[in-house]
Amino acid sequence: TIDSVFTSKLKLIEYMNGTEGFMPNDGILYRDESYSPGASASDEFIASWKSATMKFMLDEITPESGEFSGTWSNMYKGIRKANIILARINECKDLTDFERRDYTGRAYFLRAYFYYALVRHYGPVPILPNTAFDTDEPSSNVAQERDTWDDCIEYICQNMEQAANYLPAQRERAFEYVPTKGGALS
């Protein structure tokens, strides 16, 4: 259960890793399993192979075609998990102060990055309350209008600034892919 996640550092680390697993892989933008057409979805882009990006350019991607279909739900799943970490991290008693700050910063970073990926893909999106909805909440209670572009960007920047307040300036080489203060501020 979700309550068991915050009983030990090991379980929290596993939950954090699961949250990070929703991060989009920007290294596959030119393959068919890309989460987004990315910057190559422009009038000037030409490729000799029929990637998902070229399908986008040729108007072959529709809501029914399935390309990029997991982006919306995966990013919001990640946001939900990050919100849960931020709300409940103090329940995990065997974290050191450094670890608590680090995981808090990582959760802020993840929440901001998930929204960034959504905005990059869809434009303005709904910004959810920071308290996660119950999974059995009726859809009529959780449906929200899209926020404005400016509100989305401001929210992303606020979360990245919060992340920077908690994250260390540098990491050991073994953790070079984990966000740092500089990564959040960039």
Question: Mind sketching the topology for me?
Answer:
Layout: H1 2-5, H2 9-20, H3 52-57, H4 70-88, H5 97-122, H6 139-142, H7 149-166, H8 181-185
What can be said about the biggest beta sheet?
none
* DSSP E strands, number: 0
**Cα separation of the termini:** 36 Å
What is Rg?
18 Å
Write a brief structural summary.
By secondary structure, the chain is mostly helical. It contains 8 helices and no strands.
Task: Give a structural overview.
The relative contact order is 0.13. Helix content is 51%, strand content 0%. The protein starts with a helix and ends with a helix. It is globular and about 55 Å long. It has helices spanning 2-5, 9-20, 52-57, 70-88, 97-122, 139-142, 149-166, 181-185. It is mainly alpha-helical.
What key attributes describe this structure?
186 residues; mainly alpha; 51% helix; globular
